[in-house]
From TrEMBL, chain A:
It comes from Frisingicoccus caecimuris. It comes from the Bacteria. One of its GO terms (molecular function) is ATP binding. InterPro entries: AAA+_ATPase, CHLI-like, Mg_chelat-rel, Mg_chelat-rel_C, Mg_chelatse_chII-like_cat_dom, P-loop_NTPase, Ribosomal_Su5_D2-typ_SF, Ribsml_uS5_D2-typ_fold_subgr. Residues 236-418 form the AAA+ ATPase domain. This is Magnesium chelatase family protein. SUPFAM superfamilies: P-loop containing nucleoside triphosphate hydrolases, Ribosomal protein S5 domain 2-like. Belongs to the Mg-chelatase subunits D/I family. ComM subfamily.
TrEMBL record, chain B:
One of its GO terms (biological process) is DNA-mediated transformation. PANTHER family: PROTEIN SMF. InterPro entries: DprA, DprA_WH, DrpA_SLOG, WH-like_DNA-bd_sf. Residues 83-301 form the Smf/DprA SLOG domain. It comes from the Bacteria. Coiled coil: none annotated. SUPFAM superfamilies: MCP/YpsA-like (SSF102405). This is DNA processing protein. Belongs to the DprA/Smf family. Residues 318-366 form the DprA winged helix domain.
Amino acid sequence: MKNGVQIDKVESGIAFREKGQGFMFCKVYSALCLGIEGCIVRVEADMSNGLPAFQIVGELSSEVRESGARICTAMRNSGFSLPPKRYLINLAPADFRKSGTGFDLPVAVALLCCIEHVSPEFLENSIFIGELGLNGTLVPVKGILSMVSQAVKEGFSNCFVSVENAEEAAIVSEMRVFGARTFSEVIDHLQGKRKLSQILVPTSEKNEKERKYPMDFGDIRGQETAKRCMQICVAGHHHLLVIGPPGSGKTMMAERLPYILPEMAFEEQMMVTKIHSAAGQLKPGSGLMTCRPFRRPHHSLSDKALVGGGATPTPGEISLAHGGILFLDEFAEFSRSAVESLRQPLESGEVFVHRVRGDFCFPAKPLVVAAMNPCPCGYYPDRKRCRCTSSQIQKYMAKISGPVLERLDLCVYIRRVDYRHMTDEGSGMDSRQMQVKIERAGQIQKERFSGENIRYNSEMEGQMLEKYCGLDKETQRFLEKAYEKFHLSARTYQKILKVARTISDMEGSPKIQMEHVAEAVGYRLPDETYGGGLWG
Amino acid sequence: MGLTERECWFWMCSRPWLGVRSIDKLLGYFKTAKNIYYGRNSQYTEVKGLSENIRKRLEQCVEKDETLLRRDMSRLEKSGGHFVCRIDREYPEKLRHIYDAPAGLFYYGHLPEKKRPMIAVVGAREASGYGLASARYFAGALAEMGIDVISGLARGVDGEAHRGVLENSRSLPENVFEAGQTWGILGCGLNICYPRENYSLFEQMKVRGGILSEYGLDVKPEPWRFPMRNRIISGLADGIFVIEARERSGALITAEAGLEQGKNIYALPGRFNDALSQGCHQLIQSGAKLVFKPEDIAEDYDISSNGLKSWHGKTKLALDNSEQLVYASLSLSPKDVDAISAECGLTLSETWKTLLNLELEGWIRPMGKNLYIRSI
């Protein structure tokens, strides 16, 4: 407040007016995305006399710091010129780093408010998020959904975003979303010249329609064991290792998995969309993600890219696959450190990224499907084609040993498809048939774990195993025999029990039968103690 | 003072650069090993056909370090190894007659006895499940009938053959454990276990038979040394049984050497289009004996096969319906669970149950994940 100048207070602190000078101070709200959480930011603009200057303060990252020139040019090109004065922009609270490009629009609006082009009363209850192009167009930004949902929680009711972001923002139904193509459209709306229409997303009336399978397991001929294994993997949320020669259909099958997973609840859809939005993986103009994600990272990716991180932490592949499938093709080719980094997230279901500026937490509960060849050339045990030595094969297999195998519950071998099967019409299960058993198992698990803090059989631990995986005498003897004969480890034993539980749930059997255990033993992962490698 | 004749033989045999042919040339000139050791430089130049490199080495005194030599000898002794050379009475009689007979042998365990027939079971290193299973079965059956088995301690067929013998002798009472003896010939120094994965086999064979090598301690396994040791395998054997061999396989070198040495050649047939059986088929075509049961070999040595358990002979009474069905659908080439369940008309759960029961009872064996073969 300037010396000796009388100041009127207008509108509950949104702006201050100096006599005959326009507003000296003005406040607009915006938001940014930290990790996957939205955070409201106050954009304060102050205009004062003195040598013309333009400064933005408030712990800025470089992309925000350089926005000043962009904003001024965009404003001029939209037909607004700023009088030569001193302008100070403050992004508050000033104690955390402001990153992202969404502050261009609020800063520009705040400036126009200072020179009385926009009336401050319109600015209350509104948040502005958007980047400006030099020609005044409004550019979409990442993480809109997180920001808008946070804004609703803090009581905002209007939001101005780029038209490409509008659909995503409108997922939050409590918010009145206005999508604009250019900066001047926003100003026209605020000045009341030409109103923008509110973007409405047709409220997702419960789609009771038949589920669609854009990719169907019915396309895959033969391979019943593998399909069965996929079914178990989905039903009990067991991570799966698929081994097979090149071209046997490992990828093809994994791609079909998201469609037989149970449909996502709204909260889950919100979470998945938020993660993708924060990572900038959402296509412009797309709304809520209703389809479960399928991520297929290349094996050359770094551990940061896999679990998330970076200077401004962004979700990694494992978080992007949250609620869906994380397909790790050529598993043996992944770097050791990348694979090791999977361990903790898969255990806790979350990724923590620790930074000086704070800790970020990304949800990470994907269903992991790893695929690999049985040997370096890929054709073992077909000795007509494979001429790898047994030590080569063992070395290849040893790449995935240890801590990684700990996290995987199931293992299946896929063979090359016979011609006979390829020409077979309509043989085998299709996705719809597969889903019947998955849903049944899901229902049983839901009832079983209603008192517990878990959802799937694979998450059972300690006491729960005893409680829910009781075996009768005969089955117990059978498992004991197998345990001795195959030199199973305690860990493998537990996994077998969990998988057997899922199989019996799929079959609707309240008790675990012997054949369920036998099948689970058949799908067990190679044990480290077992002959030093997968092939014994 | 000075070295004994036998120590000079040890010295001569443990030079990695001195092959058996050069040794013979030197012996032709010097008559005794001692003379070679203490030979004068001028004498070395007079030996006909000796390569320049060997002559130079012989002249170097580094190669004639007595303390090093004594250390090597005690090293061999401490590890439980022995040395035998042509001048010894224990030197295997069978080897004396072969071309390029090794000058000396380093060995663990004991040397093969004359009185019992010995069959070399050899084959591909990258053998199929069929090859591995049959190597194991035939070697075991031969051992049971009192025939010793010799092989190359390599991966694949060789190792399986040794294993078959050891496995089979395990069930015999201690006093007749002679029944299961097996010898392995190495292509490297005796103290080097190559390939590594046969380490436990290596240790067991020191007790149940022996491990032989014509190379001194610390000699690295080099590709060209392996065909060389094949002549010892065939030399020590009375017959050579080729299990699985590609068209140009090391096992055929053994068979060829055996043929030159006048041994019986046996071959296991495979399927006509199996690349891994091409070598065997060629052998059969050119006169090798086709073997499809262990007795085929035994009869040549007047050994009766009474009480030998045949692989067909396992009583199937113990199996229930679905087990018989599943067992019948399996063969010696791997079949996966999918195909088994489709063929037997069982659900996957039932198939798994049956397979695991069969596996637990030892009727079948897994070959990798989800693939099964009959065990014989």
